[in-house]
Amino acid sequence: MIEFDQVHKAYEVEGRAIPALQPTSLAIENGEVFGIVGHSGAGKSTLVRLINLLERPSGGRIVIDGEDVTGYDSKDLRDFRRKVGMIFQHFNLLSSKTVEDNIAFPMKLAGIYSRDEIRTRVAELLERVGLTHHARKFPSQLSGGQKQRVGIARALACRPTILLCDEATSALDPQTTQSVLRLLGDLNRELKLTIVLITHEMDVVRRVCDRVAVMDAGDVVEMGPVTDVFLHPKHATTRDFVFESEHVDEQEMEANFEKAEGRILRLTFRGESTYKPLLGSVARQTGVDFSILSGRIDRIKDTPYGQLTLSLVGGDLPAAQAALEAADVHVEVVR
Ligand SMILES: Nc1ncnc2c1ncn2[C@@H]1O[C@H](COP(=O)(O)OP(=O)(O)OP(=O)(O)O)[C@@H](O)[C@H]1O
């Protein structure tokens, strides 16, 4: 488990302290995929670089698997860093080394592995990330997605238990992003790897993360299971991210609401209730007429969900609302 206890960070610039992370407490469970979302400058990289102590905290305690790592000396730090792999937006591969030498590099640097161990591990990782036939190529001969796969293999070389991903898919096209996210999801399941993933796209969070922290100006402003944060965002920053990822224009939506008659409800279906033919039967039972103002069906990781905004007129409105709630639908009265 990764625990932050009132951890804060300010950078010293020309004798002045520039705050980057306000006192933050959080706990990331072993084996979970934890997303950190926020605009540029929100403090995401700072938070993640504190986990592997690439940045030292200005105060507070960082505890990894029960051990306070904040006071580690350089020997402890070297051993500890093998437990934490990291991948980057621009891959950070060594351009003069081949794919296999890039992957072997952290193992050689550690100085504790035999040649045979390194050779076996590199072959295993090349196969795992689907690059066996590219072992002798140089990074410049690879696509972006392939480079990130090399980055992932290299990060896993010393068998870390934690993988930090700093905007790992931001430089990739949508299709490649999807395949890299799928690989990260598979590795999380197969290796019980804890993944902490920074992104500025809520869509990335929706596809792979179990929980998410939303950051704004150095503060964690909202944190929780992705299903809760995504479907019922509370903070304005979170709402912006969710609307952006769903391509919702808030002004346009409100203009539509003005044109609509009657009561406006936003319904959220989760899991199996997403597919039930509920609306027709509620309309028949209660005599309510409805029209659909907006809607989508999608998935959050493995959970299907649907969101519908309806305008309802006539009939027994309270009974309709009660029937929907009784069927496990979350009902929010918009107007
Ligand atoms: N080494 C540094 N020295 C001084 N200030 C820094 C340093 N690194 C980050 N900052 C400042 O700290 C704040 C948080 O930066 P950080 O890189 O953590 O944000 P971020 O959310 O990761 O942004 P981005 O998405 O643009 O990478 C910013 O105001 C940034 O300018």
UniProtKB/TrEMBL annotation:
Keyword Flavoprotein among record annotations: no
Cell compartments where the protein resides: Cell inner membrane
Main location per the UniProt record: membrane
CDD domains in alphabetical order: ABC_MetN_methionine_transporter
All copies of domain ABC transporter, residue ranges: 2-242
Domain of life: Bacteria
Membrane topology: Peripheral membrane protein
Gene Ontology molecular functions: ATP binding
PROSITE patterns attached to this UniProt entry: ABC_TRANSPORTER_1, ABC_TRANSPORTER_2
Pfam families assigned: ABC_tran (PF00005), NIL (PF09383)
UniProt signal peptide: none
InterPro entries xref list: AAA+_ATPase, ABC_transporter-like_ATP-bd, ABC_transporter-like_CS, ACT-like_dom_sf, MetN_ABC, MetN_ABC_transporter-like, NIL_domain, P-loop_NTPase
Keywords: Amino-acid transport, ATP-binding, Cell inner membrane, Cell membrane, Membrane, Nucleotide-binding, Translocase, Transport
Protein name: Methionine ABC transporter ATP-binding protein
Organism: Marinobacter halodurans
